[in-house]
Amino acid sequence: YGPSFFTIHVHDSLKTWSVMSNLHKINVLMLVTNGGYDETQDVAVTPLFELITRVRWYALPKSAHMAHWEERVRYMQVVGGFLKGDVVDRPKLSVRL
C-alpha cells in the first residue's frame, strides 16, 4: 500500500533517460513477462518484444506484478523452460497463458 512506484517523481539524469534506442543491441535471448493485472500492461511490453531481436514474452493472465508469487507453479515452469533452452528454434515467441 502507499504510492505506486510509477507515480514517484523522477529527478535529474533519469528524467529523460530511455533504453529504447539501444534494445536492438541486446544479443542474448531475453525473457519478458507480465501479468493480466500488471501495471506493466501489454502496451508497455510490446515495444520490448518488437525491438529485442531474440526474445520470449510470456503473459500470465492471473497475475499482477508478482507472478512469481501469484502464479508460482506456472511462472517457475516458464522460467525453468527458458533456462533449460526450451523453444530455441524461434528468434521470437509470444505466449498468452
Automatic annotation (TrEMBL):
SUPFAM superfamilies: alpha/beta-Hydrolases. InterPro entries: AB_hydrolase_fold. This is Uncharacterized protein. It comes from Postia placenta MAD-698-R-SB12.
